[in-house]
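Progress against Task 2.4 (sequence-to-structure conversion) is shown through the following example record, which the project officer requested during the mid-term review.
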Amino acid sequence: MTVFDASALLALIHDEPGADLVASELATGSLRTANLAALAR
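Structure tokens generated for the chain above:
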């Protein structure tokens, strides 16, 4: 299982380097509440 941090999801949202790797793991990954809160700011 992959655990994402906020920077990985920001890379995906902004189509930055590494976004393709994040996208390939998205279906089986998870995000902790603290990282979700960081994205909501």
